[in-house]
TrEMBL record:
It comes from Streptomyces nanshensis. Keywords: Cell membrane, Membrane, Phosphate transport, Transmembrane, Transmembrane helix, Transport. Residues 89-304 form the ABC transmembrane type-1 domain. Pfam families: BPD_transp_1. One of its GO terms (cellular component) is plasma membrane. GO terms for biological process: phosphate ion transport. One of its GO terms (molecular function) is phosphate transmembrane transporter activity. Belongs to the binding-protein-dependent transport system permease family. CysTW subfamily. Part of the binding-protein-dependent transport system for phosphate; probably responsible for the translocation of the substrate across the membrane. It is found in: Cell membrane; Membrane. This is Phosphate transport system permease protein. The chain crosses the membrane at residues 29-53, 88-113, 125-145, 165-187, 216-234, 283-303.
């Protein structure tokens, strides 16, 4: 009897019973747009690979791959030409390392302060001011390194001749300042996402704020911090204008940051605006160096993904 009554009520559409909702076309449209947006990055990556492979393949059909990777002399536009890419790789790694030595301590320190020490009012003021650094054009950073940082380094250098006019130290230092907002902002977001209960539990056990920050919050947010550092490295590897202006345009395989160096991106920029005949070996070096830079960043991102997954913490 009760089942019959229930079926009658359901058939009559009386309140208390769920009705079939109307199709939500707006949600379907949003879903399609989100899928399309996610595909843009994939298609862009495929487009880059497709654009790089044919010219790079033609280059390596003329130049030995081992000579390209292990050679110590890079002079593709001179006769006799030399295609050892190590000077460009060394300059790129040198400038990137200096930038990380500046950006990682300062960026993570700023993130810890904004997440654990600053009150809401201070955070609302300082975080946007910090992120303003990310909006400054890189060409401005380049001239700042050349006209401001290099003279200061030359004047205060304690011994020897000091930095040259074009040097990797000034370029790396200013590049580190440029990527501080990237590391600080993402790391601070990761630390802020750590549940408050972990902090309260540590405080209840008598931990100081520094202990909570370094031994509780920092390890819990490690995956996000690693992602922030990797993004900063990617930004440093791909930077062009700062190194082109401040580090110089001469390939130099050296471990001395006071000397001028040329990075991979600076060479691509310089060669790309030159008068190189399309299809020539000199022109194809642009794609060979670009393909090597693409592989370097791809390997670094794959390693970072493994690290992020290894140290990722999921809270409910």
């Amino acid at each position: 009897m009760s089942s019959t009554l229930s079926s009658r009520r359901a058939a009559s559409g009386s309140p208390g019973f769920l009705k079939r909702s109307q199709p939500r076309y707006g949600e379907k449209v949003i879903k399609v747009l989100l899928v399309a947006a996610s595909l843009v990055s994939v298609l862009t990556t495929l487009g880059i690979v497709i654009a790089l492979i044919p010219p790079a393949g033609e280059f390596f059909s003329k130049v030995n791959f081992g000579e390209f990777l292990t050679g110590t002399n890079w002079a593709p536009l001179f006769k006799p030409a030399s295609f050892g890419v190590l000077p460009l790789v060394g300059g790129t790694l040198m400038v990137t390392l200096i930038a990380l030595l500046v950006a990682v301590p300062l960026g993570l320190g700023a993130a810890v302060y904004l997440s654990e020490y600053a009150n809401k009012r201070v955070r609302k003021i300082f975080k946007p001011l910090l992120e303003v650094l990310a909006g400054i054009p890189t060409v401005v950073y380049g001239f700042f390194a050349l006209k401001a940082i290099t003279p200061v380094l030359q004047s205060i250098w304690p011994a020897g001749d000091g930095p040259q006019i074009f040097n990797a130290l000034a370029a790396g230092f200013v590049m580190g300042i440029m990527i501080i907002p990237t590391i600080a902002s993402l790391a601070e977001d990761s630390m802020s996402a750590v549940p408050r209960a972990l902090r309260d539990g540590a405080f209840a056990l008598g931990s100081s704020r520094m202990q909570v920050s370094t031994r509780v919050v920092f390890p819990a947010a490690l995956s996000g911090i690693v992602a922030a550092v990797v993004l900063g490295i990617s930004r440093a590897l791909g930077e062009t204008m700062i190194v082109a202006i401040a580090a110089g345009g001469q390939p130099n395989l050296s471990f001395n940051p006071l000397e001028g160096m040329q990075t991979m991106t600076a060479f691509i920029a310089a060669a790309g605006i030159g008068d190189l005949p399309t299809g020539s070996t000199g022109y194809q070096t642009i794609f060979a160096v670009g393909a090597l830079l693409f592989v370097m960043t791809l390997v670094m991102n794959l390693l970072s993904i493994r690290l992020v997954r290894k140290y990722r913490e999921v809270y409910e």
